[in-house]
Amino acid sequence: MNYKIIFLLILAVSITSIILFFSMDLYIQIYDPDWHGILNSNQKIDESKKRIFIIGGSTVYSINAEHLNKKLSENEINYEVFNLADQADNPSQRLRSIENIIENKPSVVFYGLGYTNFEKFEKDNSNTILDFIYNPEEVFKNNFEILLDESINEYIPVSPKDRSLVLLKYLLRGPDDHHHPFMSFKEGEIVDLAKIRDDKETRFVTSLETKKNDKEVIALNSIIKKLQEKNIKIILFSFPYSKIMLENTDSIELENFEKMLKDKEKEFDIPVFFLHEKYADMNIWKDRLHIANNPKSIIFTEDIFEKIVKVVGK
C-alpha cells in the first residue's frame, strides 16, 4: 500500500479546508457597506439613511433587500437594508464577525435562526484508511460535519478557488449586488415539493443542542450582548422550513428550539417572531431547506417588511 499517496491526499484535503475556512472568514470580516471596490471608488453614499442588517445563513438570503429598500422608500422610511446572509452561517461563526458588523453602525439587526443551526452531530471514529481510499468524499463529509457541528447537505460552501476569486472581485469592484454582498442573488426556479421529496434522500433531525451551556446558544448570547452594548436593536426570527424538513424533525426537539428563542426574548427583552412553519406547504421552494429567489416567493420578504415597519415605525 502506498502510504505516500494517502498522506498527500490527506494533506491536500487539509490545506483545501484551511484555505476555505480562512477565505470565508476573511471575506465576511472585511465587509463594508460603504465599499464599492477600488474601480468604483467614486460611488456616492447616502449617509442620511440608517442601516438595517439581516444576518443568518443561506436560508435567509432569499429575503430581497432591493424590494425592501424600494418599499421603505415608497413609505418614506429613512432606512437602508443589507442582506448579509452567508453560507454555513451559525451563531459561533457569526460571532467571529460581529465586531465588523458593529463597526459598520447598523441601527437594527434582524437575525434569522433555524433549529438546524443547533443540530447535534455524533462523532464517528469508525473510519479507516481503506474507507478513505475507496470513499474519500463520504469520509471527508462526515468529518467536516463533526468539525463544524453542521450538516453540509444543503450548506456546502463554494470552493476555495471560487471564494478567493469572489474576494478579489470584491476588493476590485465591490459586491455584484451591493445589498446582497456575500451570496449571488440570481433569480431561481421554484421546484414542486413532490419533486424535491423524490430527488433527495431523507434527512432526519433527531437531536439539538439548545441548552444554555451549549456552544451555539452561548455564541448567540454573546452576539446579543455585544449588539445591545452598542445600543443596536436586535430582532430574532426563526427562518422558514419546508414540510419535508418539518416532517422529519423530532417534535420534542422543535419545541425545545422554540422554547430557547422564547427564553432569549425574556432574558434580553428583545422581539422574537416565528416563521419556521408558516410557508411549509407552499410551493415556493428551490429545495427542502431554501425558499427560491423568485417573484412568486416574495411573501417571505413581505413578512419581513411588516416586521421592519413595526420595529422602526414611519
Topology readout:
Layout lengths: L2 H27 L20 E6 L9 H10 L4 E5 L7 H5 L2 H6 L4 E6 L15 H6 L1 H13 L11 H14 L19 H7 L15 H15 L3 E6 L4 H5 L3 H18 L3 E3 L24 H14 L2
Parallel strand pairs: 1-2, 1-3, 3-4, 4-5
Helix pairs in contact: 1-7, 2-12
Structural notes for this entry:
The protein has about 325 residues and is α/β, with parallel strands linked by helices. The protein has a single domain (about 5-310), classed as SGNH hydrolase (Rossmann fold). It is about 45% helix and about 10% strand. The chain contains 12 helices and 5 strands. Strands 2-1-3-4-5 form a 5-stranded parallel β-sheet. The longest helix has 27 residues, at about 5-30.
Name the CATH architecture: 3-Layer(aba) Sandwich
Question: What is the percent of helical residues?
Answer: 40-55%
Distance between the termini: 71 Å
Spans of at least 5 consecutive residues with low confidence: 127-134, 144-157
Tags for this entry?
single chain; alpha/beta; 5-stranded parallel β-sheet; 12 helices; Rossmann fold; 314 residues
Compact description:
The protein is built from twelve helices and five strands.
